[in-house]
TrEMBL record, chain A:
PANTHER family: ALDEHYDE OXIDOREDUCTASE MOLYBDENUM-BINDING SUBUNIT PAOC, XANTHINE DEHYDROGENASE. One of its GO terms (molecular function) is iron ion binding. It holds the Pfam family MoCoBD_1. Residues 1-18 have a biased composition (Basic and acidic residues). It comes from Qipengyuania aquimaris. This is Molybdopterin-dependent oxidoreductase. Residues 38-143 form the Aldehyde oxidase/xanthine dehydrogenase a/b hammerhead domain. Residues 1-20, 139-158 are annotated as: Disordered. Transmembrane segments: none annotated. Signal peptide: none annotated.
From TrEMBL, chain B:
One of its GO terms (molecular function) is FAD binding. Keywords: FAD, Flavoprotein. This is Xanthine dehydrogenase family protein subunit M. PROSITE patterns: FAD_PCMH. Gene3D superfamilies: 3.30.465.10, CO dehydrogenase flavoprotein, C-terminal domain, Uridine Diphospho-n-acetylenolpyruvylglucosamine Reductase, domain 2. Residues 1-222 form the FAD-binding PCMH-type domain. It comes from the Bacteria. PANTHER family: ALDEHYDE OXIDOREDUCTASE FAD-BINDING SUBUNIT PAOB (PTHR42659:SF5), XANTHINE DEHYDROGENASE SUBUNIT C-RELATED (PTHR42659). The keyword Flavoprotein applies.
Amino acid sequence: MTVHFKQDKPDDSNRLDGMKQGVLGKSIPRVEGMAKVTGTAPYSAEYPMTDCAEGVLVTSTITRGNVVSIDKDSVLSMPGVLAVIDDPAMTTRAAQGTADEAPQQEPGTICYWGQPIALVVAETFEQARDAAKHLPIKYREDPGAPLDPQAVEAEEQEDETVRQGDLDHAMATAAHSVDVTYTTKGHASAAMEPHASIAQWDGDKLTVYASLQMLNYNISELADALGMEEKNVRLVSRFVGGGFGSKLGVSEDVVAAAIASKEVGRPVRIVMSRQQVFQCVMRRSETTQRLRLAADQSGKLIGFGHHALVSNLPGETFAEPVLQSSHFLYGGENRDLMLEVARIHRMTAGSVRAPGEAVGMPALEGAMDVLAEKAGIDPVELRLKNIPEEDPEEGLPFSSHKLAECLRLGAEAFGWDSGPRSPRHTCEGEWWVGTGMASAARVHNIAEAKARVTLKADGSALVETDMTDIGTGTYTILAQLAGEMLGLDPAQVLVELGDTKHPRGPGSGGSWGAASIGSAVYIACKAIREELGQRLGVGETELELKDGEAASGESLVSLLDGNDLSREGHYEPGDIKDDFTASGFGAFFAQVRVNRFTGETRVDRMLGAFGFGRVLNHKTARSQCLGGITWSIGVALTEALEFDPHEGHLVNCDLAEYHVPVHRDVPDLEVVLVEERDPAASPIQAKGIGELGMCGGAAAIANAIYNASGARIFDYPMTPDRILAAMPD
Amino acid sequence: MRPFSYTRARTLDDAAQLTHDDTALAIAGGTNLLDLMKLQVETPETLADINRIGFGGIEDTDDGGLSIGALASNTETAVHPRVRSDYPVLARAILAGATQQLRNKATTGGNLCQRTRCFYFTNIDQPCNKREPGSGCGAIDGIAKLHAVLGTSDQCIATYPGDMAVALSALDAQVEIAKPGGDTRTVPVRDFHCLPGDTPWRENVLEEGELITAVALPAPVGGTQIYRKVRERSSYAFALVSVAAVVEIEHGKFTRADLAFGGLAHKPWHDPRIGEALIGKVPSEDLFDKAADILLEDARGFGENDFKIPLARRTLHAVLQNATEAAA
């Protein structure tokens, strides 16, 4: 039995607060943690298969053009080689998140250097890899493919454009104005687990074990690519070794493995090499962003401008949504916002953790620091002054708004000095030491979701959905949520995820997983409680369940009387999505040191205070924040995709040369969770926290670099070469 | 990775026999070689495993120095009590490189022979005169942030990426080499690596069939020993610039100044004129500038790596200032 709930109104009943088990929100360690650290949790390439053949993707060595011919025969005679496949149904890039249909196919048409064009299948991985490197390919090159986003005419994304009032006039007449241009380089998700699949056919039924974030969309994407009906496709993705957006859409390995398995009549496994993961899945676009801020004498914004240029391949719908939080974070009645996309032939641009705010916020919050200095106002105070009462463009109320509280609590916990600020106030040995801060914002996303909850006759519970856990804690929070609602220790709740045989979840992406699937589980549990209440003769709202018993003393086992009780919860966001502007908010504070000889920058300490609705598990939520802040350090100081200027290929395509922060770069981080209930966010009053922790943090570091060293830099990442060039003598 | 045969050498002679043709390579820790084989940059038909031929010890020498076996792991060397007390610049350089896991496997000989991290060298679908003579250089007008500013040629601007050898160069260590047939020869570390010139594929003076057996350190030299490595992140990154320094100041004047530089050239860079300019002089900013002028006299950037020239100057200043302060 399915219970469908479409949410049109805020829910401030806060029912979860009235439950008796007392497990929701608790710092429970991840339930699958032991399996992962002991190597017993199977990742997609690790499912035991008999007679599994191995596939290796062959990638293009030209930037644009066509494959004229592939001399398959020359490698088919090599030891162990079973097949060379260049089926037109193979995909040439990963699907964009929530695409729900196949991405670009026809691998013979080449749009970027490194694009998959064929697959070699062999008995062993080594044989396949060797044959893949030997495969002779004739190309017809289409030279002159544009590679530089600055050198082409860009397309305006009209639905992002906002023009209110007269920004030019506001800038000309403002007491204080800032007009600065920031750049950010491209980023990679760089998840530990590479993209990997095993495909297996049973008649016309296909099963693929794959590393994916959104099975509910991926099944459609795969079925569409293969021209199959979804009912004949099963995707399994129970454990995912990090996704960060790179596994939102079905990737090239998944489709290729399915085609190859059909052709060779055996299971086929494809594991992308680290280089292939970097070169042919997803990049975050580089950006160029012009910020214009006009303020009156008191520092209150009267004008706000944000123009951004991003890039993608021709035909791709995704444009890094740089302006996402700029639309509502600060006031200013004269507004001018515009997003443009340059069509260039670098690999596909798509979602990388916190698409939009990950790069938009570091630019905006850097510019705010420049304004604070110009206006002679404490940076925290400047932000507090400019928090709007309602969405400054849409006129909508905010669903909840914790920015002011995060700024105040964060400043207090960090020990922020609100006195006058001037660069180079502290030198310790060779190191200039300084502080900086920034606001955090990340839009709240929520999606339709289904989950089945079964109260078993033995008094335990089972939660089933095709939702994934990409290392974020989904298994754990759903056990807590069901435990809270049904009066069970979470250890009594078995959560089954990542299999399309279960009801469709929302997938993991855009920080929407916990609130969306949590709401579906909540609805299912509520329906079970209604049935239990009827059996006990009490209303659902009066029913008290704890430790497997009702308040009357009757046990769940006896109430169930030998039968399972199952309900499917179906959550759908309704008018709630249109009636409010909903976002997570927060504040970052950083202390950094900059070496006066070498320009090397190290973060001493960093603090983030975040408000994102109900906290479902303090430990997993905090861990998400720690991860986000760590990404902020990468955005600020080291992470940059470097593309060859002549062919557009990514040159630093491994973890030695794409510099994510290492342990030693990540100091003591402090996280302050500013708990709240957001009635318009979801029926469980929760928003997402997977991305907020990196939305602006890089600016806190950049602003601290300026405060420490006097180097005001407008280009991320702030590597020693850039710091030396900007540092006063 | 191409299919290859694997053979375990039992003795030095064995190893020399097995590696005496250009389709065979010796493997010790494999931390560099295996990566390059997976990328098909290296395609040996035969791998001769030399891990069991001896030469793993670290021993005192008759002249009071220290002999570090070619197969001693980087970790063993870095934690050796005599290295720590008498040659701290070496311990510091090793610990500034790679990661603990890699240092546990990496060996003295392998470290000396490690190959460049140039992006165009490690991608077989790109031109590289080092990997494929005559194919061109992708880096010269490509992505060259990590590349050399000293001793480059129009064939190659790659850097030698290591840290250990930079310290060995400052210490004026000697590389002991076994030739096929049982003879040996000794080459100063300072002469072991080559500049690219017209033969960028030739990275060091080892001839076919020759194997490093040890590195000999001179009797302890004392002084202030510094290894300064500049990098974007604080671990697991190759040097933008590094400086190894063995410096002594007596009565307010430099009496020893052995300096070597990493990240600037196809080899650890040692210029004897720098020490000569410093010795007998009173430390000062002007003097440090003169030293930097000598170092960077012929430096040439390739756009993206232009910053290495001022960075090298500034890092040298920092090191000499640290040394001066330590002596005070």
